[in-house]
Structures are given as C-alpha cells and as structure tokens.
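Try this one yourself first.
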C-alpha cells in the first residue's frame, strides 16, 4: 500500500494543521489531501513517474507537507531538505543524490540563478497555477489514489539525511511499508504524551523541519491521532511561549538549546511562563543537570529525556503511568516498549547493565544492510550509542562508542564528566574530549563560564570525579561550536582543543590527567 493511502485510510478526520499556530489559517485533513491530489496531477503532467528522484526544498508548512506527501503518493522518491541553503549548495546536494527533479515552492528567495543544472527544476506553485485547468477539482481528496502505480510496498518512498553529528551525513532510504511501520510505532510512542492532561486540548507543537524524520513524524502523528498540529516555520521563543499558553499544551518535545531560549525569554518576561505543562521532553542531545533544573523551575513541569535515532525508532519511551505519577527515573530516557533491543560490550557479548545498543524492529530500514556508513549484525542495527539499564528496566544514555576513550586503563565517557562539570557555579556548557600525548590519552574540556575568576570559575576541588576523569586542560569559550541541528559539534571542539593544547604545552608533556597546569 502507498504510504499516503495508509495515512488517508487510517488518519482521523478531525486533524487540523495550523501554520505558526494561526487558527484562521488552519487546514483540515480533507483540504490537505485535496492539495495533495492537485499536486500529484501536476507532478504527473510534468513527467514525474514511479522511481523519479526528487529533491524537495520544503519548509515546515502545510504546503511543504502537501508537497512531500504528493511526491510520495506519486510513487516517486522524496528527498526533503531544509530551506536556507544557497541555490548553488542545493544543486550540489541534488547532484550528489542523483536527483531527477529539484522542486521549490516558488522562485522568491531562490538566490543566485544557475543555468544548465543537472536536475530539472520545478517551481510548484507556478506549475499549479499553469495547470489549474487540468488539475483535480477542489475537494477531490482521493482522486490521486487511482493514479498510483500498482503495489509499491517495497518501493523506496523517502530518503532522509542524518544530522552529521557523528560524521558525514548519511542517506537513509525507507520504503512505503517501512514508513507505514514507522507511523504505527511512532503513534505508540506519542500516545502517553497525548493522554497527559486528559481534559486539555490535544496539540502537537512541531518545531523541527520536515526534512528531519522527527519533524515529519510530528505531522504524521497529527493525522493518525486526529489532533491539531502547530507547524512552526522557524523556532521563535516568544511565539512558542504564546502558543503553549494559548493552546494550553500539556507537553513539549524540544532540543535542549530550544529550552535554553525559552528560559532566557521567561527571564525577560516572567508573565510568559507556561501555566499548564505536564512534561518537558528534551531530545537530540544530552541535557546537563543544571539545565534540567532550570527547565523545571521556569516551565513548571518535569524535564524528561527522550532517546531516538535518525535511522529508526528504538522502541524505548515513557509510559503513561510513570508520566502521570511523576515516577520517571531522573535522567532516564524510558523503558523498552516494542521490538527487540540488546546491550553488548566491546567484543559484541551481551552486557545487560551497560553497553552499545543494538536494535531490531520493523522500523529499521532494510536498505541499511547494504548502505555505507552503517553497521549491521544481520537484522540488528548497531547504533554506536552506549546505554545503561538499571534493575527496574530504565535506560540511560551514556555516550557514543566513538566518544569513549581510555585513560590509564579506565573507560572514560565524556557525558559523565560533562554532567558533573556543568553543575558547577557559573558553568553553562561543557564538552569533554581526549588529547593524545607521548604518555597516552588525557581528558581535556571546553567550557562556557560566566565568570572565570574566583569561586565562579572552574574549581577542581568541586569537580567530584575520579582522578583519571579530571581534565588536565580547560579551555574557556563564549559558546560551544554547534551543528545546524543545535547539537554540539564534538569534532570541531576536539580540533579547537588540540590546537590550543599544542600551543600551551609546546615542548612539554603533561604526565597525569591531574597535572599542575590546568590551563584555567
């Protein structure tokens, strides 16, 4: 079954999409699928066929969502990317993924013109206007179904790009059947949050771009659950706080950096603080203890961790009982909910308490078995993430296998040091990395500190970690380097630390991880 057919048949009729939360501009499920029908017809008339590879420049909007779903409905392969890149960069990306078509909604904001491009360029709003006489009549929400090319279960429907946090961004391909499985399991993970505050209006605040699997998942969940989806074309702390209060949202899922922006805005305007939130879920990267406390103090709801991947759903989440009773273990990203998971040590041997997470379920794309950049053990996806499981079955994110290093025979996990260091007075952000010298590896750190002098500065005595985990060198900065996704750019942090370390210790060797000169 075509994935869009699945959404039409299983989706609830009462969903509404609200661009930037504007009720006056809301679009119903029927209206959305009418737009999809019109776009499918235009795509066919423009020569798009089954298997055509289409790069879509689509923002987090109703038109962007309709374009993405229309491409999938046409049995073509949708490759969505975020707006904001130059036209030259977009064309380079389109060439890299061997696109047949490059679709933008309109010419406005296109940037510099480029002629002779390899993919055929199409501006969809112009094409829609030009083809109005032959496009589907308004209201023909299901007219596109008959045009679908037969059975497409195993046909690629969507290709997304990973964030690039752990290296070069990788292409992740999903079939129609795998997208349907993703939607079903995503619905299972969302259900507990949607039941929080049962008497409150049900809404999903979508702040991530459609090019991100989670951003796409928010809109898909809105269709399946029949709840309002507030589509934000960009993150704005003032608008988000207004929408939280106006819509009486019971829960949020945001990046830690987004919560930081909300906290700053509340500091400027205390009356904007939310009144009805039941849960503040942070995802995308680890959140240090001091920020968790700030989230709970400013937003008035528990700060909860969520764990996920660009590749698939891992089947770990929070259940309604724990959410409702406030009994979620501090720092836990949840418990096992579906599929199969394993923790293994460095030798691939099962390690129940702590180890690399391996995942096997129906949302793991089959294409990963032959794709470069991914590690598979048969049907098991090796995530590269180290998790810890306690006796009650709660999972805790520890760090990346790639980030783990050894000092004097001891495994060092950067996040464990970062969480302790970030709780020190005046420290707002920390990133830890290894430095190699003639005697092995040492711990070094980059810190964002409000006041580097006196008690507010970095205080070794207050950093209660083992001696092997004590930073030998600390570099101060105004802000940590970050990727477009908002995650800390660890590779860039490591490069900066290595450069600064070499300058400071040129011709010297730090003999222990607790050497006399800490660089502070």
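Now uncover the answer:
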């Amino acid at each position: 079954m075509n994935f869009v057919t699945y959404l039409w048949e299983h989706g609830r009729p009462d969903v509404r999409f609200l661009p930037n939360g504007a009720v006056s501009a809301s679009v119903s499920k029927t209206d959305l699928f009418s737009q999809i029908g019109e776009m499918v017809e235009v795509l066919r008339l423009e020569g798009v066929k089954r298997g055509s590879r289409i790069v879509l420049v689509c923002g987090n909007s109703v038109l962007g969502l309709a374009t993405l779903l229309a491409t999938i409905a046409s049995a073509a392969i949708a490759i969505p990317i975020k707006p904001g890149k130059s036209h030259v960069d977009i064309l380079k990306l389109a060439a890299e993924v061997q696109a047949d078509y490059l679709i933008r909604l309109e010419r406005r904001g296109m940037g510099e013109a480029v002629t002779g491009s390899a993919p055929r360029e199409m501006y969809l709003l112009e094409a829609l206007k030009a083809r109005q006489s032959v496009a589907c009549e308004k209201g023909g929400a299901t007219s596109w179904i008959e045009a679908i090319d037969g059975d497409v279960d195993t046909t690629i429907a969507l290709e997304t790009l990973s964030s690039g946090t752990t290296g070069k961004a990788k292409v992740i391909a999903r079939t129609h059947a795998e997208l349907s499985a993703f939607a079903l399991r995503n619905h299972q993970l969302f259900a507990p949050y949607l039941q929080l505050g049962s008497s409150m209006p049900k809404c999903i605040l979508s702040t991530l771009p459609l090019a991100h699997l989670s951003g796409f998942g928010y809109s898909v969940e809105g269709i399946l659950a029949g709840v309002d989806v507030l589509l934000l074309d960009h993150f704005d702390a003032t608008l988000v706080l207004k929408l939280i209060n106006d819509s009486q949202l019971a829960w949020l899922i945001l990046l830690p950096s987004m919560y930081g922006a909300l906290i700053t805005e509340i500091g400027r305007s205390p009356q904007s603080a939310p009144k009805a939130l039941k849960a503040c879920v942070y995802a995308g990267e680890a959140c240090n203890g001091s920020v968790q406390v700030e989230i709970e103090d400013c937003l008035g709801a528990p700060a909860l961790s969520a764990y996920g991947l660009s590749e698939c759903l891992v089947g770990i989440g929070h259940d309604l009982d724990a959410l409702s009773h406030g009994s979620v273990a501090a720092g836990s990203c949840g418990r096992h909910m579906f599929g199969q998971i394993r923790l293994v040590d460095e030798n691939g041997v099962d390690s129940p308490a702590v180890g690399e997470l391996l995942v096997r379920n129906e949302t793991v794309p089959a294409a990963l078995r032959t794709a470069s950049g991914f590690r598979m053990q048969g049907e098991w996806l090796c995530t590269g993430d180290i998790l810890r499981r306690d006796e009650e079955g709660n999972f805790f994110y520890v760090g990346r296998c790639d980030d783990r290093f050894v000092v004097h025979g001891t495994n060092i996990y950067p996040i464990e040091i970062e969480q302790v260091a970030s709780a020190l007075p005046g420290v707002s952000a920390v990133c830890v990395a290894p430095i190699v010298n003639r005697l092995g590896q040492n711990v070094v750190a980059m810190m964002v500190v409000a006041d580097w002098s006196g008690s507010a500065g970095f205080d070794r005595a207050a950093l209660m970690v083992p001696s092997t985990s004590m930073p030998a060198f600390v570099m101060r900065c105004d802000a940590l380097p970050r990727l477009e996704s908002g995650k800390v750019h660890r590779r860039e942090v490591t490069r900066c630390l290595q450069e600064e370390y070499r300058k400071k210790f040129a011709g010297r060797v730090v003999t222990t991880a607790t050497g006399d000169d800490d660089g502070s």
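Discussion: The first strand starts at residue 16 and ends at 19. Residues 176-194 form the longest helix (19 residues).
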